Automatic annotation (TrEMBL):
Sequence ranges assigned to domain N-acetyltransferase in this UniProt record: 4-156, 150-280
Transmembrane feature ranges: none
Coiled-coil ranges from the UniProt annotation: none
GO terms of molecular function: acyltransferase activity, transferring groups other than amino-acyl groups
The protein's name: N-acetyltransferase domain-containing protein
Classification via InterPro entries: Acyl_CoA_acyltransferase (IPR016181), GNAT_dom (IPR000182)
Entry superkingdom: Bacteria
Length: 280
């Protein structure tokens, strides 16, 4: 098995191997090429800092890297790593991880992080062997039932807006990499922005994707528990084709947000562990 950076590869080159690697995953992922390309773009994929494993001239594994700035330090973030069935148990993950660590170190990047789904014991053990340790648990929820907001707050759906208009991200806990502002700015199609205002004061803000993923929800302190979040969620739900809202990567310590979701009959879907490691 040979290992090399993915410098010359495109999402189209990755797509067949990606489908094979995740065909039997604990949560099978079979994205279209368009969806895979959009995901890599939003995450900030860096091909030159990513690694591939080749068998007999065919791509059999990948470690896809981004380099977000977290708390003033550039880190290596594993967007996704996978090995096709025919390439497993041959040291592919270890070889790719070693190459990525070396590529990052050349640029002075010493810290890495990734997520792994809870229950995927084989992957968790593999990453532990590579030096990754648990940082926190991230939960995923889904709302399908119609939202009944307490009270009525008029919601503005901004047909056009600039990211500079968004309020500062004053969140209770740091967002996971896919939900950080630098990722949200790269979303295609651009995110929808919904707000609640009173006079010139911004009381509530919601950012969501076109398919119903709520990526950020904020209500101004002093105006919480007054139905503003519910009004925003109800308006967002009405924008979706099927009435389904999803919340990914909710910090498990964020009891206020989780309580809000459960109050609106959100169903728990799964959890992920955010893992990190620092190189010498």
């Amino acid at each position: 098995m040979n290992f090399a950076p993915l410098s010359e590869l495109t999402p189209a080159d990755l797509h067949p191997c990606f489908l094979a690697a995740f065909s039997d995953y604990i949560v099978p992922a079979q994205p279209s090429l368009e969806s895979l390309s959009a995901m890599l773009s939003r995450r900030g994929w860096q091909p030159a800092l990513s690694a591939g494993a080749w068998m007999d001239g065919q791509l059999a594994g990948f470690w896809l890297t981004a380099t977000p700035d977290i708390d003033g330090e550039t880190e290596g973030y594993c967007i996704a790593a996978g090995v096709a069935p025919e390439g497993r148990r041959q040291g592919a993950l270890t070889g790719m991880a070693g190459l990525v660590t070396a590529l990052l170190a050349e640029g002075g990047i010493r810290r890495q992080r990734l997520e792994v789904i809870d229950g995927n014991q084989r992957a968790q053990q593999a990453y532990a062997a590579l030096g990754f340790a648990i940082l926190r648990r991230l939960d995923c929820y889904q709302i399908q039932e119609p939202i009944a907001a307490r009270g009525y707050w008029p919601v503005t759906i901004h047909a056009e807006h600039a990211a500079a208009d968004w309020p500062p991200a004053n969140l209770a806990y740091p967002p996971a990499v896919p939900n950080r502002r630098e990722s949200l700015l790269r979303a295609e199609p651009p995110l929808r922005w919904l707000t609640v205002r009173r006079a010139d004061a911004l009381l509530g803000s919601l950012l969501m994707s076109s398919d119903g993923e709520i990526v950020e929800l904020q209500v101004a302190p002093g105006h919480r528990r007054q139905g503003i979040a519910g009004s925003l969620l109800r308006a967002g739900q009405q924008l979706t084709a099927n009435g389904r809202l999803s919340f990914n990567n909710v910090d498990s310590r964020d009891l206020a947000l989780i309580s809000l979701l459960l109050r609106h009959q959100a169903a728990y879907r799964l959890s992920q562990w955010e893992l990190g490691k620092a190189s010498d």
